[in-house]
Amino acid sequence: NTRYDQIHLVPADPPEACGELNNGVFIEDQIALVERGGCSFLSKTRVIQEHGGRAVIIADNAYDNDSFYIEMIQDSTRRTADIPALFLLGRDGYMIRRSLEQHGLPWAIISIPVNVTSIPTYEMMQPPWTFW
């Protein structure tokens, strides 16, 4: 139920966000883009939360994955997180990171929810940002 307008999507450094971040200061009050692997989804979410992030988007580390969603399950600890975590297909995460690198940008400016088409999301049968 939360809406974010013109917020930064900041790729975590290191990308897996399993510990201290080199760019944690830039994640404060923003949304972090994190890569799957190295530790649990919950651990990644807590690292971003500890750095003051508002939410985390975890992209699959299989860069060619454009259709297989991963279930983000609890990691059998009793820890919790207070910020939302979302999963992004590997191809989408790769395209975002590649675009930022090609343009020399440290982050993207995004709005959530997003729908770049006039077609309702439920009719598209794919995420609204997948247009590459």
From TrEMBL:
Q: Does the keyword Secreted apply?
A: yes
Subcellular location, record wording: Secreted
Which keywords describe this protein according to UniProt? Answer: Glycoprotein, Secreted, Signal
GO cellular component terms given for this protein: extracellular region
Say where the protein is mainly found: secreted
Fetch the InterPro entries from UniProt: PA_dom_sf, PA_domain, PRADC1-like_PA
List, for all copies, the residue spans of the domain called PA: 9-93
Q: What does this protein do?
A: Plays a role in the modulation of physical activity and adiposity.
What PANTHER family does the record point to? Answer: PROTEASE-ASSOCIATED DOMAIN-CONTAINING PROTEIN, PROTEASE-ASSOCIATED DOMAIN-CONTAINING PROTEIN 1
What protein name is recorded for this chain? Protease-associated domain-containing protein 1
The species is: Turnix velox
Phylogenetic placement of the source organism: Eukaryota, Metazoa, Chordata, Craniata, Vertebrata
Its encoding gene is what?
Pradc1
